[in-house]
Amino acid sequence: MESNFTTKDAYLNCFSPRTYLQNYYTFGSSPSQEKQVLMHNLRKLSETFSLGQVKGDLLIDIGTGPTIYQLLSACESFKEIVATDYTDQNREELIRWLKKEPGAFDWSPVVKYVCELEGDREKWAEKEEKLRVRVKQVLKCDVTQSQPLGSASLPQADCLLTTYCLEAACKDLPTYQQALKNLSSLLKPGGFLVLLSVLKSKFYIIGDERFSCLSLTQEEIEAALQKAGFTSEQSEVIPHHYSRAYTDNEGILFLVGRKLNTSVGIQG
Ligand code: SAH
After folding, report:
1. What's the CA gap between 141 and 148, in Å, rounded?
2. Could you tell me if 252 and 200 are in contact, meaning their C-beta atoms sit under 8 angstroms apart?
3. pLDDT per residue over 177-228, tens digit each?
4. Where are the domains of the chain?
5. What is the pLDDT of residues 65-91, one digit of tens each?
6. Would the CB of 90 count as within 6 Å of ligand 1?
7. How far apart are CA 103 and CA 94, in angstroms?
8. Closest ligand 1 atom, CA of 25?
9. 237 near 252, Cβ under 8 Å?
10. Of 70, 74, 86, 171, which one's alpha carbon is 20 to 30 angstroms from that of 160?
11. Whose CA is nearest to atom 16 of ligand 1?
12. How do residues 41-58 score in pLDDT, each as one tens digit?
């Protein structure tokens, strides 16, 4: 049934970072579904990382893609951030922004919005610099491998963040389940998992390209997390969806969990 699911090679060959950013992360003055969803996600991330509970030395973002919005509040609470992605072109796009290279995507409207949420819109340039300093590495990652970061040697993280990656990378529920177990090895016992996922989506569009998505419900995600040895401390669905021209999702899940201190995660 899932035999047509987008392959890793298709990600390497067909995922256009620029088109993805233009489609989903244009943050102009006119209202759009995409803008509404992004504002909501930024609010949730800001609440999570500014309340002071989710903080520490190292945060690893899994499947960062070409985006930085998910790191804007996190960079206030973690000393070091490691960004990761499967595709070369996404890591290159990200590095372009980190290094302020010509042609980098302009995130400043998004950064200004996050600074406004955090109390001072005028601090946006400072925040951009802080994030650039805090992102120490951009690594290749494959969530389907038992060692998702290959031979890279990192201490176990205090927090794993993953936004819209697992449902794109995993062709079925067992693969999703296994990916969570793979990721668990990167996290300290008791460490946080912050996850953002579209719900019940079967595809998403970037320009003219169609990418598969694993259709998941809130309950399926929570059950998969539990089986992989995570608790779910906060799990909230909003009914928003992206433009119907882009994807068919029904709601978005924002979840904060923790890796259990026991060894549940390595069984089965
Ligand atoms: N985190 C970003 C990008 C999500 S798009 C955001 O919030 O918008 C999905 C991302 O998953 C892409 O960047 C893609 O390259 C990445 N991806 C796909 N398969 C993967 C795999 N097997 N391992 C790690 N990342 C993968």
Report:
1. 5
2. no
3. 999 999 999 999 999 999 999 999 999 999 999 999 999 999 999 999 999 9
4. 2-259
5. 999 999 999 999 999 999 999 999 999
6. yes
7. 11
8. 8
9. yes
10. 171
11. 63
12. 999 999 999 888 899 999
